[in-house]
Amino acid sequence: MTIPRRTPDPTLPAQSVFATTKPEEAHAFLCTQYMENAVRFRGTREAFRFRHAHRSAGRFSIATAIHTMSVECVDEPPEQLLFGRVLAGRFERDIKGHTLRAEPGDVFLMARPGEPLTVRWDTVRIQVVQIDYATLAEVLGENPAGPLTQLIGYAPVCPAAARLWMDTVDYLATSVLPNPEAARSPLLLANATRFLASAALTAFPNDSLDRCTPKDRTDATPFVLRRAVDFIDTHLASDIALPDIAAAARATGRAVQRAFRRHLDTTPTAYLRDARLHHAHRDLSNADPANGDTVTAIAARWGFLHPGRFATTYRRVYGRSPHITLHQ
C-alpha cells in the first residue's frame, strides 16, 4: 500500500480523503502524515473504521478524522499550530504535568511549536486545523524573524470566543475551500488565511497586547500614514498584508495601526477592505452579465470571502444590492 504525502499547491485548495477498515493501514497513514514517532493502538479490531478528510489552502488546512480504536502517541514538537475540536468521543493531551481533557463540543489548542506532543484518544471524531505562527505574525504586523506573539492558553477566552472560532472554521471548510472561485483567486485565499489567523488571535489568549512599545506610539505620524495609504492604493489588487504596509511606511505594524486609528479613526485592514469594495463597485458598474460576469466572481476578484456579507456591506455603502448594479 502506498500513502501519498500531501504536497498542496499554495494557490489552489486541495482535497484528499483516505479511508480504511484495517488498523495497520490507519497506523501507517498517521505515521506518514502526522506522527513520526511512537503511535500505539489499543482495543478491538472488530468493525474498525478510519477516515481522514483533508482540505488545504497551502498556508492552512482543515481536516476531519474518525478513528474507532484507542490511540496513544508521543511525538516531537510540530512545526505549526494545531487546533482541535472534538465532535465525538474523547481526546486527551498531556501539558506540563497535567492532562487536558476534551469532550464533544470542546475547542482547544492541540499543539504548538516548541512543545513535545503526547496525546490519547478513544473512538474519536475530531476536527484539526493547522496554521503557522508566521501567519499570526503577519496579521499583527510582526517581523517573523523576531520575537513573536505567543498563544498563552489552550482554551478559548470565553464561550463566545469558542463559537467565533468554530463558526470561522466551519465557514472556511464549507463555503471557501470547496468553492471553485477560490481556486481562481489567490487574493481570496490569502484573505481567508488571515481571517483564520485573526480568529485564532481573538479566540485564544495571547500576549499581543503587551508588545506595543513607546516607539510604536511616537512613530504613528501623518507621514507614516501617508506612505501607508499610498502603498495600499497602489497595490489593491495584490496580496498585501500589514507587514507589507508597515515596510512601505517605514514603521512597525503597530505604529501603522495606531496612525490609522489616530488620524483616520479606522484600521489598515478596514481601509484596504473599503478601497477594494470601491473597485468591486467599479467593476460591477462596468460588467456585462451577458459575458458571464457575476457578483460572486467580481467579489472574489477583490478578496471578499462571503458573497452574502459582501452584498450586505455593498448595500450599506451604496444603498442597493450588487446584483442591481450589475444588471442596471
Describe this structure in words.
This protein has 328 residues and is an alpha+beta fold. It folds into two domains: 14-153, Jelly Rolls, CATH 2.60.120.10; 169-327, Arc Repressor Mutant, subunit A. 43% of the residues lie in helices and 23% in strands. A hairpin with a 3-residue loop joins β3 and β4 (60-75). The longest helix has 19 residues, at 268-286. It is globular, with a radius of gyration of 22 Å. Residues 1-11 have low confidence and may be disordered.
Strand and helix layout:
Elements lengths: L13 E7 L2 H11 L5 E4 L7 E7 L3 E16 L5 E15 L2 E5 L4 E5 L5 E15 L1 H8 L18 H18 L3 H4 L2 H18 L10 H5 L3 H13 L7 H8 L3 H12 L3 H19 L8 H7 L5 H12 L3 H6 L1
Antiparallel strand pairs: 1-3, 2-4, 3-4, 4-8, 5-6, 5-7, 5-8
Helix pairs in contact: 2-5, 3-5, 7-8, 7-9, 7-10, 8-9, 10-11
Q: What structural category do the secondary elements indicate?
A: alpha+beta
Q: Please tell me what the overall shape is.
A: globular
**CATH architecture classification name of the largest domain:** Orthogonal Bundle
Number of domains: 2
CATH level-four homologous superfamily name of the largest domain: Homeodomain-like
Alpha plus pi helix count: 13
Which stretches of 5+ consecutive residues score pLDDT under 50? 1-11
The overall pLDDT average reads: 85
Radius of gyration, CA atoms, in whole angstroms = 22 Å
Query: How many β-strand runs?
Result: 8
Biggest beta sheet attributes: 8 strands, antiparallel
